Amino acid sequence: MAVDLSFFQSQTAQQLRAEGRAEGRAKDLLLLLGHRGVEVSEEDRECIVGCGDPDVLGLWFRKALTATSTAEVFASDGESGADAG
Fold first, then answer.
1. Label partner for 67 (CA 20 to 30 A): which of 17, 30, 36, 44?
2. CA–CA separation, 59 vs 62, rounded Å?
3. Which residues of the chain fall below pLDDT 70?
4. What does residue 23 show for φ and ψ, rounded to 5 degrees?
5. Cβ atoms < 10 Å from Cβ of 73
């Protein structure tokens, strides 16, 4: 008897997997920031948890490896997130 596996290839299934990856990345990012002692405001926490784009969360995670504030994590390329002078 053949099993219908079409659901696992459906757009809905792909969306659910992407949401799960994003949720996991958000949790990892918050864990990393907490471990590094970076203060995360409730507003920043909501921004991180509410982000559904795994690529953006991945970028933020890489920035969080060396950031000393969430402003540095969220800064666009070319911005330091801190005052220059």
1. 17
2. 5
3. 1, 5, 7-8, 78-85
4. -60, -45
5. 25
Closest-CA residue to 74 (of 36, 35, 37, 41): 41
CB burial readout 42-71, b (16+ within 10 A) else e: eebeebbeebeebeebeebbebbeebeebe
Which is it for the CA torsion 54, 58, 60, 23, positive or negative? Answer: positive
pLDDT digit string, tens, across residues 29-51 = 999 999 999 999 999 999 999 99
Answer yes or no: pTM beyond 0.85: no
User: Taking the CA atoms of the chain, what radius of gyration do you get in angstroms?
Assistant: 17
